[in-house]
Task: inverse folding
């Protein structure tokens, strides 16, 4: 067997990316995604595409922020690993199998082939997540009316709130940031993401109890694929009252009032309270996401 040849694509040969089966139906989930040909790479063996990866970022990003399309032909785990290892960007990898993939032998085999290639390339599992999509046919969630919401122009107010929220958290990305650089890094990474989203800064909202105490924050957002629940967080001293649902309901109403015809969202599978809130608010699970990160980052 010959060694795989890794090839970066251009606009003229981007068609090569389509020469591999798509058992996890990634193309459907990326109907709104815009990929740059020069951020797409394939592995060929004897002239046939046996692995492919699409790195992705926002329209103004100088480098990709993640890999969100990665396919490997059966038995070609090493070619897939070499595709990842040889890339000039070492960023987080997302694999998005459809819901119920564990119960379908073909889907499970396809997903596990990709997992094996990622691990062989030095990537480690970070977290498994549920992805949600609200549409108008689900109906708007009822606003409980218990909290007072207001815009806040000062980023330091959100930074301080995020430090408090992440001081007790189930979120795997926040926990990794805390391990690397403490609560300041975790809060700053969230702020950087909010600013990266192509939605107005004025949308960010603080929530207060009737007594005037900080309850939490919610960030209605648009990412390059459309309207999304950017962030929901309750400060530790206000937990136990179900306020996360109030924040999610308000965030949903806000986005609909801004013209959203669908709203995406996501949460870690281990975050049972937030998963329950998404279900209560009428957000069905439409797929899953398995996040891997380069092991070198954790060093």
Result:
């Amino acid at each position: 067997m010959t060694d795989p040849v890794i090839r970066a694509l251009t606009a003229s040969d981007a068609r090569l990316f389509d020469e591999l089966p798509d058992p996890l139906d990634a193309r459907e989930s990326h109907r709104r995604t815009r990929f740059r040909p020069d951020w797409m790479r394939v592995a060929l063996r004897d002239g046939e595409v046996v692995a492919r990866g699409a790195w992705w970022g926002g329209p103004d990003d100088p480098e990709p922020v993640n890999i969100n399309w990665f396919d490997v032909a059966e038995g070609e785990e090493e070619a897939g690993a070499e595709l990842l290892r040889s890339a000039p960007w070492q960023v987080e990898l997302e694999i998005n199998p459809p819901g119920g993939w564990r119960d379908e032998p073909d889907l499970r085999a396809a997903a596990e082939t990709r997992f094996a290639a990622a691990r062989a390339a030095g990537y480690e599992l970070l977290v498994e997540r549920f992805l949600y999509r609200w549409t108008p046919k689900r109906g708007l969630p009822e606003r409980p009316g218990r909290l007072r919401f207001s815009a806040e122009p000062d980023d330091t107010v959100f930074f301080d709130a995020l430090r408090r929220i992440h001081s007790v958290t189930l979120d795997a990305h926040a926990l990794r940031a805390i391990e690397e650089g403490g609560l300041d890094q975790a809060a700053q990474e969230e702020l950087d993401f909010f600013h990266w989203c192509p939605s107005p800064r004025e949308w960010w909202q603080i929530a207060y109890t009737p007594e005037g105490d900080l309850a939490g924050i919610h960030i209605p957002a648009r990412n390059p694929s459309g309207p999304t629940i950017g962030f929901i967080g309750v400060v530790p001293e206000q937990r136990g009252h179900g306020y996360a649902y109030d924040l999610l309901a308000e965030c949903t109403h806000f986005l609909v009032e801004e013209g959203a015809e669908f709203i995406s969202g996501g949460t870690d599978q281990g975050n049972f309270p937030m998963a329950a809130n998404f279900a209560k608010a009428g957000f069905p699970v439409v797929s899953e996401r398995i996040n891997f990160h380069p092991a070198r980052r954790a060093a």
The chain has a mean pLDDT of 94.
